[in-house]
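Worked example (supplementary).
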Amino acid sequence: MKLSDLMHCFQGVTPAGIATCAADGTPNQAMLSQVYYLDEKHVALSCQFFNKTRRNVDQNPFASVRLWDPVSLQPYLMQLRFLRAETSGPVFDEMASRIDAIARATGMAGVFKLLSADVYEVLSLSVLQGALQPAQATPLPWSPEPRQAGREELRGLQLLSDRLCRARTLEALYAELLTSMASLFGTTHALLMLHEEECGKLIAIDSRGYDRIGAGAEVKQGEGLIGTVAQTRKPLRLSGMAAMRRYTRAVRESAQKRGVALGDEIALPGLTDAQSQLALPLVAHDRLVGVLALESRDPLAFEDWHEAYLALLANQAALAIAMLSDREDEDEEASAEPQPAPLPWRRRLFTWFAGDESVFVDGEYLIRYVPARILWKLLREHAQGRREFNNRELRMDESLGLPPVKDNLESRLILLRKRLQERCPDVRLVSVKRGRFVLERDCEIALEEKP
Amino acid sequence: MGQVDIAEFLKRGLCVLVATRDASLMPHCVTGSEVILTGPRRGIVLLPTFESAPALANLRAHGAIAVLLEEPTTHRGIQMKGRCLAMREATAPELKQAAEFAARTKAELSAIGFAPAVLERMNFMPCTVVEFTVQQVFEQTPGPGAGRAVEART
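After joint prediction of all chains, the assembly is encoded as:
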């Protein structure tokens, strides 16, 4: 049996047990939240608190670790020898990123952090025969089908690549990317966040699988899984999240008893009962474009190969987004303005709050920053009789504060459309030609400005 | 020093892990089927036969034992350290209690998402009884307080 045959055991879905022995011969038994696979001969354990286990292996390097398969509960026993504690380097960085993302997501930043990545040599590995009664054909708690090695990854990559290349607009590209995650890779919950360089935040632009699109939701860099991926620009995968939440809750309660100050618990975005998450940075030309976040209720939904394989897709998507964002090809001629439809009785009140540069509709928050400035300009000019607008005039309007290069105008307009679609479907921005759109309405529009 | 009520804790659904060591100080981790307090600072732990041979050999030769009790839904944990006094076959009442202990453990594991079909396959029998003294007790809930010595409330 090879260590890599036990990859499910290294996902952190089930905790592990570790026995060590002090120099005076006193054994010690403890639990571990996760064992990290390094290669066929080595594993790493996270040292988050300088505890008895770590003090013991400093004196006597041997350890005995018991792992459980998270699907069958088959136990395995590894005899280990402690080699070294790493406080920098790729192993430390990867483990620290994962732990930091969990800590930030649970308000444990600063308490729940990696002190060292403790590297152990695997001296022996054995299956504990007899621990389970003979298997019967019974349903398992989550997707029991084996992940087939012969899947059509290449075909999926080709299809998605093709779809991204054919997308003529950013809106179509975002839709293809998210829809393909489900249709080609079976990932039912996907969220696309774009990086707003001016405010340093990530803004949700579109999603699939959730009750609502969530366009406009913000995540700060370094905050939670998505913010950490944006900051480090490295993919990050969290599996067995229910187990992690239980573990961090125990640490949190223990820390609170000891008077350690903790921040507010930040809810992870998306599914409240997500069991695994994978977030991929979208980087093009060394510039962070955004983050693609995937979620599943299956604790083993994302494995090692997903991280590498979907990172390829993310790179393709990032390049496609960057290329389409840079395109200036607008149709020159204005279209013949269609006659406005008769207005129904409904009235919508839009309020511009100059202080925080936000627009509210009927007293409810709609949008802020640059998309808010764009919307306010459109609404004011619409009130004077205009209906059709073009991207070029928006780019030329210095009052909107668009950066001179990489202005993300298309994405900001998509965000604006999605927010209107969710919060005020009576007002729409409808594309009529490339780079041109009309403001359509099914209501009377009233405007007011406040400080 | 804080206090823990081990007898009260043992009424919960718990996972049991036992550490022993050999002459070269190589530790060994084995699962336990049940823990019962048999008197002040004394207890028994039942070790399933399918994997207990190295642990029993270690205990025969050196006697040092650590018994960890952990509640899977909360990760609350207590560790007892002591010496092995004797090893013997389990009595009928002990086996009955072990079956009840296993049922509570499986209920806990069920609460964190394991299906009954998976839990039904877990095998704790037959087993050997290890009698041990409880010389020290430690808080074992993960976090900054893990490993802190506590007083066993009797």
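Two points are worth noting when inspecting this output. The first helix of chain A runs from residue 52 to 59. Chain A touches chain B through 60 residues (CB under 8 Å).
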